[in-house]
Amino acid sequence: MSARVGLVLLGIAVVGAAVPWLAPHDPQAVDFLGRLQPPSATFPLGTDHMGRCVLSRLLHGLHVTPLAALVVVAVAAAVGTAIGLTAGLVGGRLDQFAMRVVDAVLIFPAFAVALAVSGILGIGLWSIVLALAGVHWADYARLSRNLAVVERGQAYVRAAEALGVSFGGVLVRRLLPAAVPHLVVLATYSLSWAILSFAGLSFLGLGAEPGTAEWGLMIAEARHHMRAHPLLIAAPGLAIVTVVLGLNLLGDALADPATRRRSPFSRPIKLRAAKQGDASCA
Amino acid sequence: MPSNRQRQGAIAADPALVQALTRRLIYGAGLMVGVSLAAFLSLRALPGDFAEVLLTYQMAGEIPSQSALDRFRSEHGFDAPILMQYLRWMVAALTGDLGMSFRSGDPVIEELRLAVSATLWLTGVSFAVVLLGIPLGVIAALKAGGWWDRLLTGLAVVGMAIPNFWHALLFMLLFGLVLGWLPSSGYGTWAHVVLPALVIATSSVGVVARVVRRALIEQRQALYARTARSKGVAPLRVLTDHCLVNTAAPVLTVLGLQAARIFDGAIVVETVFGWPGLGRALAEAVLNRDFPMIQGAILVIGIAYVVINLLVDTAIALIDPRARASL
User: What three-state secondary structure class fits B296?
Assistant: First the structure.
């Protein structure tokens, strides 16, 4: 059930993002005479304090926060998975050291650290993305390391090693496919974390640039009018909740073994024929 | 049931416990050094050069000449080897000298002291609310599948999806401005704590309840619990003395994680409600490029969480002998 609700919520977001011409107006078109209008046929969600169409800004916002969050997750997942799988496969001292570092990263409040890091790097979109990825890779490293330790002892990995498949080959062609379903689950949760964090930083004035049609920023700008125009903070807030709730429900469903049995990810990994050498990807 | 004295004797005698605690202490000490290094290096890693940033600030924004800059560097020891600079900075920090805030001109340590006490008040109340997740989770586990269980799951799911800055504004609008039950912002009385503490706690209380619920359901189905029940131990006794004790490790772990999330929440919530705490101080320092203040905040937050982590691990090791080997 939750999977379907999640997919529906995300579907709304994807459709909204894929069809920008759904937006009735230019999200940046300022009209001071028509500011703070109530919803009407021309402006379905009314206008903000600068007379900009709220619905258009909401739809264009789909291209800002979720996209930035995707980049954060992609960077964190790539770096964290590479470190985690390597540590798990090598084992020994390297593994212990890597996991101590991961533990250290995970005990601190992630948002606070990202905030401080972006304060040092300078305010801007890229420093935020880097800072968020910089605190988030550790989750991927821990998960993929634990998976690598389990898979390392499995026959298909040992067989590959015995056949002389290179280290990189075992990592990329054997361990990575086994880790992907678990990484996908983590990625849905971490996307929602990244969206909330990015919107939060934008709300504080540290994420998206002023004037951008970004949800957190829209809420910050509408704060002073919220008593008289609650819709101005309700609409972007609901947009965030829709996407995040959709992702979380999807993650819950993917993590649930009952769903997993039916999912395409769960096919057992087949031992490949030996002639399909893996040396090329080392 | 072993008496308390017997239990204490068993704890003192267990070499695994002593080893685990020693390992944790060494790790914690290493982390403290790491935190201090991170705080020190954060300003040295600034784009440009901290000596230049500092002098520019002291000259009220005027760009210093190269000769003035060189003189400033040698006067303040910026030309010393980096290790020397670090040690000097450490000695100063340990005696309470963290420099002056760029924004207010006051000593950073004074600003931090006020901010930390305000934050401890707020996060302490939030944490107390989060602890309510334990009894809520126990009830949900005992009545798994019932309406209460479903309500709680719903609360957890929604609580995690609501951005806390938006939640803060909604509470402020509803309870502060429309209904007028509570002050909508400010600091000083218990009435001021209620709204921000509730907002911070909402995203965590459901998570804790869910962990408690799952752990307890698992324990109640375990063979030892069935054995105890079948040999006639009272069900309540089985729950409190057998099952709940065994859920301690995962529950303490999740509480430790929530301690970090509570501070994350406090940053935004303090800013919205005008609460003069460490979270707001950090956000304002970042916005105003008040580097000495950022550094001080990194140091305080870092050390606080090393200590919290140490306490959580110690508590787990004391309660659950099985966890000692892995700590």
Answer: helix
8 Å CB contact of A192 and B161: yes
CA A188 → CA A83, A101, A184, A193, distances in Å? Answer: 20, 24, 6, 9
List residues bridging with B100 in a β-sheet: B107
Interface of B with A in 145-184 (CB under 8 A): 157-158, 160-166, 169-170, 173, 177-178
Of B178, B256, B286, the CB nearest to A119: B286
Owner of token pair 């995040």: A244
Report the residue of A115, A139, A249 to disrupt the B interface, i.e. the one with the largest count of B CBs within 10 Å. A115
Domain residue spans in chain B? Answer: 16-45+96-326
Q: What percent of chain B has pLDDT over 90?
A: 34
- pLDDT value at position A275? 38
Supply the ipTM of this predicted assembly: 0.84
Give, in words, the CATH class of B16-45+96-326. mainly alpha
Torsion angle, CA of B214/B217/B221/B226, rounded to 10 degrees? 140
- Tally of CA atoms within 13 A in the half-sphere of B232 that contains its CB: 0
Nearest to A120 among B178, B261, B294 (CB): B294
User: Are the C-beta atoms of A233 and B167 separated by less than 8 Å?
Assistant: no
Write out pLDDT tens, residues A100-110. Answer: 999 889 889 99
Binding-site residues on chain A for chain B (CB distance < 8 A) = 2, 100, 104, 107-112, 115-116, 118-123, 192, 196, 199-200, 203-206, 216, 219-220, 223, 226-227, 230, 233, 236-237, 240-241, 244-245, 248-249, 252
CA gap B309, B300 in Å, rounded: 14
Query: What pLDDT score was predicted for residue A274?
Result: 38
pLDDT of residue A272: 41
Render pLDDT for A223-265 as a digit per residue (tens, 0 to 9).
888 888 888 889 999 999 989 998 988 888 888 766 555 554 4
Shortest Cα distance from A248 to chain B (angstroms)?
8
Q: Which long-range contacts (CB under 8 A, 24 or more apart) does B240-243 make?
A: B241/B1, B243/B216, B243/B219
The sign of the dihedral angle between the CA atoms of B147, B148, B152, B153 is negative
